Amino acid sequence: MTIQQPIASTTEDLMANAIRALAMDAVQAANSGHPGAPMGMADVATVLFNRFMTLDPKHDTWPDRDRFVMSAGHGSMLVYAINHLLGYDDMPMEQLKRFRELGSRTAGHPEYGHAKGIETTTGPLGQGISTAVGMALAERMMNARFGEDLVDHFTYVIAGDGCLMEGISHEAIDLAGHLKLSRLIVLWDDNGITIDGGTELSTSTDQRARFAAAGWHVQAVDGHDKEAVAAAIETARVNDRPSMIACKTVIGFGAPNKQGSHDVHGAPLGEEEIAAAREALGWGWPPFEIPDQVRDGWRAVAARGVEARADWAKRLATSPKAEAFRAAHGAVDAKALDAAICAYKHRLSEDRPKVATRKASEMALEIVNGTLPNTVGGSADLTGSNNTKTKGQTPVKPGDYTGSYIHYGIREHGMAAAMNGIALHGGMKPYGGTFLAFADYCRPAMRLSSLMGVPVVYVMTHDSIGLGEDGPTHQPVETIASLRAMPNHLVFRPADAVETAEAWQIAMTQEATPSTLALSRQGLPTLRTRHTEANLTARGAYLLRDPGARDVTLIATGSEVEIAMAAADLLEADGIKAAVVSAPCFELFAQQGPEYRAEVLGTAPRIGIEAAIRQGWDLFLRPEDDFVGMTGFGASAPAPDLYRHFGITAEAVAGLAKDMK
Amino acid sequence: MTIQQPIASTTEDLMANAIRALAMDAVQAANSGHPGAPMGMADVATVLFNRFMTLDPKHDTWPDRDRFVMSAGHGSMLVYAINHLLGYDDMPMEQLKRFRELGSRTAGHPEYGHAKGIETTTGPLGQGISTAVGMALAERMMNARFGEDLVDHFTYVIAGDGCLMEGISHEAIDLAGHLKLSRLIVLWDDNGITIDGGTELSTSTDQRARFAAAGWHVQAVDGHDKEAVAAAIETARVNDRPSMIACKTVIGFGAPNKQGSHDVHGAPLGEEEIAAAREALGWGWPPFEIPDQVRDGWRAVAARGVEARADWAKRLATSPKAEAFRAAHGAVDAKALDAAICAYKHRLSEDRPKVATRKASEMALEIVNGTLPNTVGGSADLTGSNNTKTKGQTPVKPGDYTGSYIHYGIREHGMAAAMNGIALHGGMKPYGGTFLAFADYCRPAMRLSSLMGVPVVYVMTHDSIGLGEDGPTHQPVETIASLRAMPNHLVFRPADAVETAEAWQIAMTQEATPSTLALSRQGLPTLRTRHTEANLTARGAYLLRDPGARDVTLIATGSEVEIAMAAADLLEADGIKAAVVSAPCFELFAQQGPEYRAEVLGTAPRIGIEAAIRQGWDLFLRPEDDFVGMTGFGASAPAPDLYRHFGITAEAVAGLAKDMK
């Protein structure tokens, strides 16, 4: 394959070739990485940034900046090269030379929080484009609230074949098309190459027809024809639908002997090919050297953004909505929330409702949504089951973004990624629901919530065999353990309405940690009948029933705390003193000091009780202790029958306790 | 909304209404379940079975039967009603009366293995249609091997809006369209209703255009017009592409006051509405009573299948391929595999290669694929990284199914579901690869492998921070724990080429348990230098280095066993006797007797070593023991730097051991 364009002549050509040179040189220096995508998409990215992107490297979190998401995250060097050239102060050339080294900001894939100007972590394919849908949705919702003076920007995505083959892309594309997210523009790196070889090995999909079927505006261009790319972006910007621009590109464009083949995707080009590429591109400068003309070109992009941001700041200063806008982007009003939750808990301790914790979650959400103005609820088509919609909430609709509730459709994974995007965009706090068993469908996006430290809240109801007749496909037995395994993720399994309210309070005030609330389908009594101002759930586990000197300690979570309390009653009748520990959040208990933990757990024999597998319970249990729970999948039957069948009963617990004593 | 057809008059109309009556009566009796889909799709299903399906209820595993997959698994009563009416001997009326009761065969969702004629477990949306793609692919592959005399059948799917909104459906549809799986026919229950309300709440996708974009043949019919449905199926059967028939239906058809609304989706109709439905449908019989005319109609379907199977049996009896065909459907030749693996292990003990276990996996696969004639390999576009393709394997291509390797594309979830389908179809043993971190993408389908007991093999390479520069998005730290949490799933993490071969041997001889092989990217020395005929990996964990009386026991898996061995050397130099336990499979170790476990673990202080989180290690470790591993996400850097950075080194282990002693 031969180079398809003349030797670089314009500044814009040189700006693109600067990306290519930095990408191939950094990958070579690291002896690891992906030169193919940055070199192939350098022209498209240069046109996008040079002619359209509005950003200010000195104010990288400016709310009204355009968002750029490199969904094909393996092409991270494209991002780092651009951010260096734009002049982000944390991306000096030295960082590019240290690509993929320990402690550098230039990680193998773009990592949110590692360097400025990285809007989201990408690498797991399909996540970037799906997260961008959340960003574009948040933009429209914030626009509806604050007007175009304060919120009026675009979300641009570079996506590869991998992103478009992943299932999550279907959920994201459908949701964006349905909601008419007109500020979302996806540039598809249509290079016809995957790792195994040509795309014809595994796909025959007409991507343009596919996007059109989902309600998108679709164009196709030669991705190395800068004027064509510019014209297409121009057209996309004024269309009232989300836009996909198929950019026909040559992967590794510029490497004369390797371009257009999968060999250029994920390995250094080698010194010889790099020299040949330099010649073919007419790039005469040594590695990591950028001529002034090119640097000036890129700095002009930044200068345009600086001006735009200054104008915006003036508008904000005089806006009647300035205070509300700033508040939306600041920390949650923890004081107000604490006061509201405290008052609510006090009422609960008197009312003592017997409700499922999914219902208790709705009750707590009434407080949360009534106190915090910028929550965004939703469910993956289980609104009435997840109880995620509170009284005041109206749904977001195509073209009408004033609502604060999202019908995500039967798209758990897309919902999770969109919530990441909403949270990353800023200004709103998303939560969304599905059945706990279907956390598996969300898991890759939940992992990114944790890795990025995005405080999304997952409302996962029907959290055990207690859901009954729907059977083992719907009954999580290993799901709680699998979520507790995830670093930087709070898993709450509240026992009653009080703990549910406390869990919501903690989840909504997290700044860098996502939460999952595992909630029951079945009704549960209020066990915390004595009101405390303190949020006891914040300790992770606490003594719910303290008999003083104890013969046995029963430790339970969620719906099984009721069973533990009943077992303690049975034991008491037999003269055995049982303490009951409610353990709504393992992660928070693990953070407590040794004294507190020792005080709660005591030295007596222990029994853990959870309608799930034992894995992870060694936080509480020693080898000599016992566990009442599940050892395999559940079954389809009414919940009480299942609890009896699997031996998760107060009688079984009491029997064990007697044997242990 | 009024009933759109006249009172039932033909036998076929009555056959359809029998499904409706049984569905609404069983759901009412259970006071739980989903009448909407069975009532809405009763006409389509009746036409499908009455005029097309070939099956023999007395030989429910007859290999050349047509497959029927109820992807909208909540409509399970449609399946149970039909299977009862067809005369499956394990589905007497009593089972329908016990719908959703403990111990009945009529679980809330169709569960593979619970009753005859259930081809796969469904309920988690999108899984059925995606599993069916694997079945339809297996049919074509078996047809290519054994000819149309022995293999020539269809796979029919009923899918709902939920199935088509799920991301996995995109992967499945694209793969099926690409491979031109002409024997796959999807009947879409286009009823415009989801749980939250009308589909217009969350989707605007033109499904017909979408399927066409993926290379499908598409038709649309009134799903209550039986002749139209029949004509469409007829047309679909002779098309050379997979077919989607959009069947416009009224959910809950027949319930005069509730049909066409989401109220009829997932709750009993109530006695009053059921009475009204009986009148509207002209169905005069009491609950659970079927008139002879109707029963005869359904039994005629079965009779047609009995005849077809008898003809097929005659063809098989005289086929020169009969022996091979029977062998393909029988158990693996465990003896031959054992001999081949033993001979290979013997060579390894002499050659002692230093290879990554992903490479060792390829070497073992050369033996496996050379010994077992019916393995089917594949990868989600990481063939060269997963090392899943052996020398003799050629890829399956559109229209050419002679190969035994599948380029699944960047579709981990679709791959996993397709492998379930291939295994369920029978005749072939599938394995497929991706990076271990992306097990999360496969997880809902992996869970079904485990729940159904389908012995699929997942080849998951790049199994720790040892993958290096790609960074935390690609580094599984919690993934191994999350897979060990899954019931009925063997997770192998072999330490060297010998254990890798042993793991493959165990995985390939499983009959009802899927396996995951977690394999290193980085090179590892052969540690099992003394040849044993016995498969030591089958014990789950064993003493790799036994110093006799020991001061400390080091327990490690996979790439960290090398570190444990090096630590033992360091300790030996200081006069401390360290035993090293290699623990390639926790699940198998948990199955060993207490004597063996005590012998392996000893009583000395223990240190667990795994470049992953500790969760699950209480199988080996007591509270006083120690663990060297990860506590959070990884980072992007060369692997040796990461091991040092996170303190997973022989020096660190030896230091800890000295402190413990």
Automatic annotation (TrEMBL), chains A, B:
Enzyme Commission numbers on file: 2.2.1.1
Pathway: Carbohydrate degradation; pentose phosphate pathway; Carbohydrate biosynthesis; Calvin cycle
GO MF assignments: metal ion binding; transketolase activity
Any one GO biological process: pentose-phosphate shunt
Gene3D superfamilies in the record: 3.40.50.920, 3.40.50.970
Residues annotated as catalytic: 412 (proton donor)
Keyword Calcium recorded: yes
Ligand binding (substrate): 34, 265, 358, 385, 462, 470, 474, 521
Residue intervals of the Transketolase-like pyrimidine-binding domain: 355-526
Co-factor requirement: thiamine diphosphate; Mg(2+); Ca(2+); Mn(2+)
Assembly description: Homodimer.
Protein name, entry field: Transketolase
Originating species: Salipiger abyssi
Source organism phylogeny: Bacteria, Pseudomonadati, Pseudomonadota, Alphaproteobacteria, Rhodobacterales
